[in-house]
Design goal:
Length: 330
């Protein structure tokens, strides 16, 4: 019998935190690995984490000194923990030209891990303003897509989009890159993974100006009406760990309203760890509390959410497949 979400946050997690306070980061990781074995049951249903930054999964915000980025060994451990709890596939989106190769190397060397490539809107301001730079990046990604080694591992273009939370001075440049990435996605018959933070209207307008584009609103942050708008444009709505937060009432209402056949789940790891793991660096194994929260909000079973979101992910990301012993060599 699977351990319920309400069971996860009790004494075992207090052991993790006390060990962390006494002995630091290493003790947290060692104790955490032991706790994962106790917390999760192999009978948990299959899920796909559609958005997890595995290339820097061990980073976290906060004062404690966490390693800057995951090594291949650490990524293998992260994915092993995910598989142990039924998370059979993970999409790792690239966020800047500097991490494209690392994202692809991880996807090509780890079963069940797939890549997406684009530039995060918050990194657009750092891109050269030379007019040749944008087409050069598009050509670079196109080269990866055509390469018989890396191409099969790239299942989407993303993450791209608009982010007006910190600064709007680069809004025009963000829109230019966003439109270019959507064009690239359509050229290659791929979905686009959209990052949207406090830019709902402009995101919807850009998508409306790209008829035929499809994809997902990752880590959805809007209300039910905005979800309806994006679903009308053919997009899926993906919920992350912040859905589990007690004060996320707008997200709760959105999740209730979005039909199950238009939903995806994700962690956006290492950010936004769900309750009961809030305060830790998130990882793909933590996607179950997100699915459980959807089940609770809709009054349905976890199994129903898992089945629907897994099929939705396989439908949207048509190049993605669940591991079955056949793993394309890279």
């Amino acid at each position: 019998m699977a351990v319920s979400a309400t069971h996860w946050s009790r004494d075992l997690l207090r052991v993790v935190y006390s060990e962390d306070e006494r002995n630091g980061h290493l003790a947290l990781r060692v104790c955490y690995d032991d706790v994962m074995t106790l917390l999760f049951d192999a009978s948990l249903p299959t899920l796909i984490d559609t958005h997890s930054h595995v290339d820097y999964i061990t980073r976290r915000e906060g004062p404690k000194p966490y390693p800057e980025e995951a090594s291949f060994t650490e990524a293998s451990s992260v994915l092993a923990r995910a598989r142990a709890v039924g998370v059979q596939a993970v999409i790792n989106p690239g966020t800047s030209p500097e991490n494209f190769d690392k994202v692809l190397n991880l996807a090509c060397t780890h079963e069940g891990l797939f890549a997406a490539l684009a530039i995060h809107p918050c990194d657009i301001a750092e891109q050269p303003t030379d007019p040749s730079h944008l087409p050069a990046i598009m050509a670079r990604i196109q080269g990866y897509l055509k390469d018989p080694t890396t191409g099969p591992r790239i299942v989407a273009i993303g993450e791209t989009g608009l982010d007006y939370y910190h600064d709007t001075s680069a809004a025009a440049a963000q829109r230019d890159w966003f439109m270019a990435f959507m064009d690239l996605a359509q050229t290659n018959n791929l979905p686009v993974i959209i990052h949207d933070r406090e830019a709902h209207n402009d995101v919807a307008n850009c998508v409306a100006a790209s008829p035929g584009i499809t994809g997902v609103m990752h880590c959805f942050s809007g209300d039910a009406a905005f979800a309806d708008t994006m679903m009308a444009h053919g997009f899926y709505i993906s919920f992350a760990g912040n859905l589990t937060f007690k004060n996320a009432t707008q997200l709760h209402e959105a999740a209730k309203s979005v039909p199950l056949d238009r939903m995806l789940v994700e962690t956006d790891a290492p950010f936004l760890a769900p309750i009961p793991f809030r305060g830790q660096a998130s990882e793909p194994a933590f996607v179950h509390p997100v699915a459980q929260k959807i089940a609770d909000l809709k009054g349905i079973s976890l199994e129903a959410v898992a089945e629907a979101t897994t099929q939705n992910a396989l439908r949207l990301f048509s190049k993605l497949h669940l591991p079955n012993g056949a793993f394309p060599p890279c």
